[in-house]
Fold this protein.
Amino acid sequence: MWIEIMRVAWRSVRANKMRSFLTMLGIIIGVMAVVLSSAIGLSAKAGVTKQVENLGTNVLTVMPGSASSGGISRGFGSASTLTTSDATAIAEQDPDVQYVAPLVSSDQQVVYGTNNTNTAIEGTNAEYPDIKNLTMAEGRFFLESEVNSAANVAVLGSQVEETLFSGERVNPVGQTIDIGGIPFTVVGVAASQGTSGFSNQDDAIAIPITTAMNLFTGSDTVNQILVSAKSQDVMDQAQLEVESTLRVQHQLSAATADDFQISNQATILNTLSGVDRILTLLLDGISAISLLVGGIGIMNIMLVSVTERTREIGIRKAIGAKRSVISMQFLLESLMLSVSGAIVGLILSSIGTEIVSKLTQDGNLLSPVAVGASMGFSVAIGLIFGVYPARKAANLKPIDALRFE
Amino acid sequence: MTEYDSGARASRDLIVIENLVREYQVGGQTIRALDGVTLTIQHGEFVAIMGPSGSGKSTMMNMIGCLDTPTAGRYCLDGFDVAHLSEDDLAMLRNQKIGFVFQSFNLLPRTTALENVELPMMYLGVPSKIRKQRALEALQRVGLAERVYNRPNELSGGQQQRVAIARALVNNPVLILADEPTGALDSRTTEDILNLFEELHAQGNTIVLVTHEDEVGRHAKRIVRFRDGRVELDTGAQRKVGVPKHVD
């Protein structure tokens, strides 16, 4: 008998093709919203993970503290409180610190032959590639001796190299480029690193910090100091050591707050993924609402269907259909609407995620959790929103239903 | 599933109605559609229930068909007291004891004649093979062996009513209850359908036919005429031939 009831329900779904399709559309859109938003979440997560791997999780960034004028703080990084001697002190005194690289930066015009570009010139020391996990595409990074002698040598980011040497069939290593009107010898080209946070590391040129200070900044203050801990386990100790070293260096009394800020990459990325989580939550909320709206659409159509078929219900009851049989027939109809909607939605969204993952190369973005959840949610919606119309049908009195025109 | 076998086959009485009252509330007013009806119908009778509109004959038909329950009084169908049955029990009672034939045929649209006839057996839980075989037999009995795969909209009125009669017969009910079965048919088809009822009666089926047309009522062997919710006339009220319990 159950097979017949299913056939009856299915026939009724098919009898009004357009109406059934429009009803399903709510669920189709809802399911697509769930699956695609989870794909966006997964893709963002993959991006964050990639950045963590790029930067290393054992890196501390020391930034100058906020300058205040007349009690008005101008925010971190606005003061020039960090110097190269701070970096030297950290390197010499702090046992849990492995590498220290001070950083000064200034934007300069760079020229090679007929090509030129404006890019960030990062002055740093020879430990920089160890902290940044920088690998070289060609040539080498500059040496400690070159830092000490303030040599005019430069290491190009991959994007800068592309810009300056496009169309030139020469090996950039050994070539001379002009930075801010001063000739530099290219000693290496870094492999592509991608973006980190908000800066594009491939669009930069690294030169010895001594050279940068002599030629471009003219002071011994630095913009930031990168510090790497010996391992990820001693991050907290390293951070405390750096803090106390700098407090001594800056002669801060116990009552004075730090005039610098130490942050580690993991914290920054955590913040980023926290934002990402909120975004995903928001998208999930919207998808849930659209599924709910789809469910209300199903209930609406089921109520119409019950009213339209009042007479049919009367006939069935008169010749012996029990309440449970009638209510099952309508419940199955609503389930069929929601489940077929979910299946169509899943097919469309798997095509969608396939395209997105091809484009972003983030691997498979069709999350089994999202598929399962949206399927389960659709079944639940079909049941919940089908119960009321089904009960209404089952409760019809046969004489009233038969008299219905 | 409750099986309603012939609990009271020993008795010749199929329908026993005693002081049946049915009241409706219409706009705060109580309307008494049936006002104390007493009626007995035996197995094998062909009874026409007649009367003008508003006489209570439709309410009577709903009562006999177990589609409605009485406000007061007693109704026993084939030994089952209707007042004590739940809605689902009533559904099963209708399924197994009564075959309905309606004025407007009441076939399911978009459903073949065969499936329409199979429906009562489906609700009884008859396996599909037996169902199909019995449905084909029933359609043959009403002379529609050729049209079993047609849908109602592909059949004439007379043919649709034959499908409905086949559906009414298929569970071998003890009662065929027809509500104005010829009301939507032309006079020639009416004659055909009434002849079919007479044939079924001749084969031993009990038929109760509700109508307001004297032409139609004439085919029945007994006429019960209603007026104002009461039995006004009963042509064939066969006296109960019970054995007196004791003689004074």
User: Anything to note?
Assistant: The first strand of chain B starts at residue 13 and ends at 26.
